[in-house]
Amino acid sequence: MKKKSKKFSASNITPLTFIIFIVTGAIMLFALPKDKISAEENRTLSKAPIPTAYTLAKGGYSRGVNSYLNDHFPFRDFFIDLSDCLNGLVTYRGSGVTIIPGGSGSSSAEFAAVANDIMIYNGRAMEIFRYDDIYLEKYAAALNGLQRSINSKSPDTRVFSMIVPTSYEFYAPAKYSRGVHSESEAIDKLNGLLSEDITAIDAVTPVRNSIIDGGYVYFRTDHHWTTDGAFAGYGAFCGSAGLEPMSSKGKYTVPGDFLGTMYNAVRDDSLARNPDYVEVHYPPDVESCHGYADAEMNTEYEFFPLMDPEGHDNKYLTFLGGDKPLIKMTGANHNGKTLLIVKDSYANAMSLLFLENYETVYLIDPRLTVTDLADFCVEHDVDDVLLENYALVLTNSGMADILSQLYNE
Amino acid sequence: MLFSELTFLYIFLPVCLILNIVFRKYTVAKNAVLLVMSLLFYAWGEPVYVLLMIGTSLLSWWLGLCINRHRTKKVLALSVVLTLAPLIFFKYSGFLVGIVGVKFNGPVMPIGISFYTFQIISYLVDVYRGMAKAQRNPFYLMLYVSLFPQLIAGPIVRYVDVEREINDRQVTGEDFTNGVLRFVTGLGKKVILADTVGGVIASVLANPLSELSTLGAWGVMLCYTFQIYFDFSGYSDMAIGLGKMLGFKYNENFDHPYISASIKEFWRRWHISMSSFFRDYIYIPMGGNRRHQLLNMLVVWAATGLWHGAGWNFILWGLYFFLLLTAEKYLTKKIKVPAPISIPVTFVLVTLGWVLFYFEDMGQALQMFKIMFGGGTGSDLLAGPQLLSVIPTLVICAVGSTPLPVRLKDKVISVIPGWSRVILETAFVIVMLLACTAMIVSGTYSPFLYFRF
Fold first, then answer.
1. Which of B7, B192, B451 has its CB closest to that of A42?
2. Could you tell me if A103 lies within 8 Å of chain B, comparing CB atoms?
3. Of A306, A375, B48, B432, which sees the most CB atoms within 10 A?
4. pLDDT: is A95 or A222 the higher one?
């Protein structure tokens, strides 16, 4: 008997295409090589989760698989670009103020995904600042606790606080930087809550003056300040600490355009058309610079504090090569004085300048390592402690919680 | 697992469809595969509560047999109470204990429990009424309860509607094509439209309501009105599409509700499977229109509200529609309102209802109402630019919530030859898959301010 031959029907084309599409996606998902980091997102990509009885029962394994697939989807960059095009079709970005809703990322300082709403205005992207008294009180309590703890063991150590304003304070339209949106108002309120034994440094005024003088103080596409902003901040510290600030020895420009964190968060064409560039104030002489895996000074390695960021999209890495748990720098001013900076990444751009006034400068990033700061000060004979963070730490409790882990009362 | 996750689209779905095709001639094997896949689908998100669902299914299988054997109201009532018990415990215990003033958060609610509990009740009642045969095979009843296309977000599928397909189903090329088209349409509604508008709503409402102006408040609620429709109906579209691909024909769950000329019509078009459940299993058995109709309506609408969530706002939301329907019932006898007026009026009334639905805090709901009715003193500082940015999306949503796109599609298909239609449909599927994948992938794009290499 002859077998009946089946005719291919046109109605099968659409289903076949659908199946081929999703099966191909699945095959590529497993077959293609996986990246470990995403330079645009400044983060390591998820690792394949290992199932355990606990993670299987609690759903941790399925969540891990979901994030692994999300992070390693084939042609992820192409799809992200495609979604930008689609967003352009279904949404409108005018020439005035545009506000991009923040992501669902964590707002804690330790894993600070861009979770705040972002404003694009006049070719500049800025995190929208909005403070709350509760967070001011928490941050002040953490700083006061640190100061008490440090001075209980090291009474002569001076403690300074610097909250660095962001570009939002100066470049957002006036009506957006008033009241709860005013960084300077929040900083003033915070300073009013600090102990008398903490010297509050006013970084707002010198930064504003630098802007008025026409300086390139903030990046347009990144959330940091530039070398000029950092220089103004350094000057403000010296003024408060009774030190003579160094005079500028000139600047050099790092080759290549720079599209920073804010651009990566909003991927707006108007920002891409006018990229930033990174300049560096020539620092004082550096005699040594070592990084450590933690504040106990394990796993020492030497590095050059002003790296050549060629091959890196993130040109802000020029300064110290990015955040590290602990850095120790020594300079040519052999006055025996030691400064400890407990900092976020804003300090990276100004840290080398302090070698003009201190023989040794330690930088601790409390997001990356935990230690008892009072003990550290005693052990390393610290004269001055600068507690530095950018203004957005006043919009949530993340950094206050982290700082609270640095002392015992 | 959610349909809009890459894990579902690119791992679960291809495996499920291929196995379904491989075993297409063997009903038993096909059902076994579908049952295992459905349990896996549920266990992916609810690894422990899948046991509850399995237990509830087995219990309902046994109860179905008991009802079939005894067919008394007592047995039916006991069966319904037993079926409702897990739902009451997991969904309402915290709320009920809270009413008497004891602070108790209650257990975490298993996903989809409201949907599958109602499905089981419909099965038990239909067996009692003789409309459905009691299922002898416990695994087949478990398959009905756990079928993954409608498990998480409906529609509420009645056993009688899928009884025949569980025992014997065939998928034609046309069914599969229609299923694929329906699925990608629903996926697009969810990830391109609903999620875009939803991002703005979440951002705007994260700030104090006092910052909203009256116009801003209406803007936000308009966004939510479209978000909830495109999210929910998108999910139903995906469920119906997946059902078709697997050989099940689910009834429609939405029929362009925002073109309704009355609240009554709205509820004939919105979440049809739920409203018809309440009609057939509560309203009519209580006496329907024949006796104490108002009381029946009151009970049904309070229950409708409560079904959506364990909170006073949901009960008030249900009662709000009870009041509207009651008023409409008496007013429409006296006044005939032309459609150009009644459609926008209905739309506005439904939008106002979503305020109660969205805000679980009654203080916030009242504040929102106050702002919407002229009490807004805010300047929309942050809301204004964001609401303006989604105007194109809202226009697409407004047009998309009418029958116009479907009519246009039917018109185009009727005038073009067969092969052109195939090419057009295939291109649509590819474009939608690319677009939706892009939107899902971009949702996972999470740039960090600090360097965490």
1. B451
2. yes
3. B432
4. A222
